[in-house]
Amino acid sequence: MFLVGLTGGIASGKSSVIQVFQQLGCAVIDVDVMARHVVQPGYPAHRRIVEVFGTEVLLENGDINRKVLGDLIFNQPDRRQLLNAITHPEIRKEMMKETFKYFLRGYRYVILDIPLLFETKKLLKYMKHTVVVYCDRDTQLVRLMRRNRLNRKDAEARINAQLPLTEKARMARHVLDNSDEWSVTKLQVILLHAELERSLEYLPLRLGVLTGLAGIAILLYLLTHYLLPYA
């Protein structure tokens, strides 16, 4: 099995692309969902966030107030990096657990939906393929203004707070262009899925694991049939 890192930008259409992959039967891990999971009360990241940012980031029930925390780190790179340093190690642990579950179920590849794949670069080394859901800036701006009911100034500020999609597209192995009709984008997703399914890049790891399991089985057989009887 190999990992496919998928990312995009605000209003680029990443969520719609993910839905198509899921309809095709693909395994998808949403890192944003994991990020919310690891900051729940009782988890190490929750405790550390409260220590660093104070109790003002808490709701009455003890959950993290994501809006308040988001406002604290908005346009403050140092605070954003500090939050990432707290949450990212915990997210990686959860990601590995979920990936292993899909491996045991026989999936050839797993898609990891990672919004900050190229910004942090922390998970890039684990990805065999990288995919960017792209659209041109004008299309992105119009979609964001319509979807979030924002004026042009506010929409541009949100887009400018992210790494430009043109830069992400240059770094990605695959680019799904969602600038035009949705039917065109959907066809791109279907073709990419077929390409990944045909890939044999999952074989080395799977064969390595199977070889290791076979070795363990042989060792257990020798122990039980030849060595233990004389103990």
The poorly predicted ranges are none
Overall geometric form: flat
Order of helices and strands, N to C? Answer: EHEHHHHEHEHHHEHH
Q: What structural category arises from helix and sheet content? A: alpha/beta
Task: Summarize the SSE layout with pairings.
Layout: E1 2-7, H1 14-23, E2 27-30, H2 31-38, H3 44-53, H4 66-73, H5 77-104, E3 109-113, H6 117-120, E4 129-134, H7 137-148, H8 152-160, H9 165-171, E5 174-177, H10 182-198, H11 203-227
Parallel strand pairs: 1-3, 1-4, 2-3, 4-5
Helix pairs in contact: 2-5, 3-5, 7-8
Task: Give a short synopsis of this structure.
The chain has 231 residues and is an alpha/beta fold. The protein is built from 11 helices and 5 strands; from the N terminus they run E-H-E-H-H-H-H-E-H-E-H-H-H-E-H-H.
Describe the protein in words.
The chain folds into two domains: 2-38 and 95-227, Rossmann fold; 39-94, no CATH class. The protein contains eleven helices and five strands. The protein has helices spanning 14-23, 31-38, 44-53, 66-73, 77-104, 117-120, 137-148, 152-160, 165-171, 182-198, 203-227, and strands spanning 2-7, 27-30, 109-113, 129-134, 174-177. Strands 2-3-1-4-5 form a five-stranded parallel beta sheet, sandwiched between helices. The model has no long low-confidence stretch (mean pLDDT 89). Keywords: ATP-binding, Kinase, Membrane, Nucleotide-binding, Transferase, Transmembrane, Transmembrane helix. The chain crosses the membrane at residues 207-228. Belongs to the CoaE family.
